[in-house]
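#struct-pred

JT: dropping the chains for the assembly here, can someone run the whole complex?
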Amino acid sequence: MESMEEETPRIGVFVCHCGINIGGVVNVPEVVEYAKKLPCVVYAEENLYTCSSEGISKIKEGIAKYNLNRVIVASCTPRTHEPLFRGACEEAGVNKYLFEMANIRDQCSWAHMHEPEGATEKAKDLVRMAVAKSRLLKPLEEPEIDVTPSALVIGGGISGMTAALCLSNQGFKVHIVEKEPELGGMLGHLYKLYPTMQDASESLNHVVNSVKSNKSIEVLTSTVVKQVKGFIGNFEVTVQKANDETANFEAGTIIVATGAPIFEPVGMYGYGEYDNVITQLRLEQLLKDGQLKKPESVVMIQCVGAREKEGRTYCSRICCMTAIKNALLIKDLHPDTDVYILFRELQTYGKHYEEHYRTAQDKGVKFVKYLQEKSPRVVSGKNGELTVNVYHALLNEELKIGSDLVVLSTPLIQHEDARELSQILKVPLGPDGFFFEVHVKLRPIDFATDGIYVCGTAHSPKDTPESVSQAFGVASRAAIPMALKRLRTEAITAVVHENLCSGCGTCVKLCPYGAIEKDEKGVARVTEVVCKGCGVCAATCPERAIEMRHFTSEQVMAQALAALGRTSA
Amino acid sequence: MTFEPRIVGFLCNWCSYAGADLAGVSRISYPTNIRIIRLMCSGRVEPVIVLETLAQGADGVLVMGCHIGDCHYISGNLYAERKINVLKKLLARTSLEVGRLRLEWVSASEGGRFAELVKDFVEQIKALGPSPLAGDKPDKNILAGVLAAKAAAEDFRLRLLVGREKTMIDDGNVYGEKVSEEELDKILNEVIDTEFVRNRIYLLVKEKPLSVKELSERLDLDSKTVLRHVVVMRRRGLITVDRVEGTSPLYTALEVGR
Ligand SMILES: Cc1cc2nc3c(=O)[nH]c(=O)nc-3n(C[C@H](O)[C@H](O)[C@H](O)COP(=O)(O)OP(=O)(O)OC[C@H]3O[C@@H](n4cnc5c(N)ncnc54)[C@H](O)[C@@H]3O)c2cc1C
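RK: done, full complex below.
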């Protein structure tokens, strides 16, 4: 590797026609001729499709024949094709970080279809910029690390327990850390579960028992996570018991399954003021304990503190179905009790869901639509009897519904201590306060930090089947690195030039991943496997002592100068 | 020939570069003037590089990152915002138009927005005309200003302040006192003023020894202010007396120091 750094660059440039996608606009032969004249370029050719197997062979042949030690492909975007071309380089013995791309399709021919001359000039510039960077590229090695075959699951609700069982079935050790004295989470407080109407405890007990009897799952109740150090494969976890005792263990991966409590609507619709204004959660408990006295008239109000114009703008996803479920349960117990559901919009999409809505209508549950700007009001009479006034948009009149039980459907919200946990784990919370995945479509249960995953209502409001599906998902995600046992991590990381570092600690504070620490000598040191390669530290370091590999200041400056047609000194 | 600006773009890989790709994929056309450099994060944008790019004659520099809250690296774009803010303050002290630098947020799904912004920026630069620093004969005076700005951006004091800005607002200073945006802006302006002037002085006396009077003429600053800076710079070992002409000492730059 050292000797390679000394080698003079011998660059090969492969310019792609991409059928007519590039060649139909950009004068490819002209770009090839231009490339040949650029410094350090020893070979250039055009390909119909550089990404075809023929094109790939051409790259490999070129490397062998012309003894190339750097390769540039001028074609599409590195976001999709860089891995393929890097692979070709690697197979032909060129370190994959000595590969560079010029984006002459997505950012050139496609955007400038009616300006062939301008597009050709731009393509030449982009190739020149790529050459300028390529000359300065350095080979990089991806550090290899061992992975501890053990997972930490934070939260012992249905999601966390399901994930833990899945992982233990695959032969991994699991620690479940649950802050409450008992496993079970929200399901422990619920009566029956839509869509099957089974007892929540029935589904739950089975899982709790499996977890408790499983020898490879260690359950730590009344315990919270205090500190997490390290990185994927090698997390060092410190937990704290209620009695302040602490314990340490190692984990290869971490699953966040901390669930979500409900919003307590204190001060809304008389909640906290009148005893017979309660939440859906409280209603579930009353039903479960068989303590619900027969009501004459129940009014359920939806979207209480949810789907607001500001703040909690999101839909809590489970409330429409929960209200319908509980309305049906009340109707089953007391068929002559009136049940009203005051809703803004009703969302009962999904398998087996719409049926419940229809059944509720058949059984006489009354659905009344209200407007957000004219939300219902709960007023109390002399003898404590309640009246719910609601403006009926279709009838254009205010209905007055006498009620002896008002039930508020409130959204799931993030735990108060979630921010602390997010800081301990260095993973983000989204604008709505829930744990925030790295990509909503393509990586919906991963965090940007490798080795940490999220499932269940910790991520967003969802019902049990959805939470369980995600739990299966995170278990298989977490199993990948643990099954591989060894991992290669990012090579594009920051590196501190110790002799320049003054130990001011600015970088330590700003690194969003905690990848930088001060070492015994008082200078900054990057933990490579934690570094994600954003380069903020390098751009900020007061002493300019940090170099961002593969995007060094020298390389970026060379590109900028090449863009201006100037050469670096 | 009509003026076709040369614009250098610094785009983050995850949002804005992807947005630029999408413009192409959607066949949305925009002017050919921009040359894009891909970085992993807009937070990687190094002030010194931006100023050098302008000094070397770019007609415009367009920095693009993920929308606030969408940064792939959690907070990188917030740091980008702070750096561009400081860069604009520095540029405002030179005679190069601040409008030659722009920061915008573009998401991966905003191909149309990307194209619009490039179009708009090209118009903006066309209205400003060619950079006085482009071509073989850059305007010496303006260049001196931009180089002083660059030197200030390389300077430890300013960089330390910019690097700590966000933490000072979020977590407070070393004494745990939280600093408000306004207070910080005031401090920032003061430091930028000082650093900029000192670097101008340094670069001027590096060329040839000058007296306080001469310096104050060149910099269009009162001699009292210049003298104050000269005193500090002498103490810090940045400049020294070269010789005395009549009664006034002429100062010259020292290579080391800082
Ligand atoms: C009123 C109501 C009715 C519902 N009805 C239905 C229904 O009929 N059908 C249905 O499918 N779903 C229903 N749900 C939704 C269901 O409760 C959730 O989908 C499910 O509980 C999600 O499971 P979970 O494990 O992700 O979270 P939870 O059940 O909330 O479990 C999370 C666990 O993590 C623990 N924890 C939290 N923070 C920490 C921490 N920092 N450290 C350690 N441990 C922590 C908590 O104590 C808890 O035990 C209902 C929800 C409500 C509120």
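JT: nice. DSSP finds nine helices and six strands in chain B. Chain B has two domains: 7-128, 155-253.
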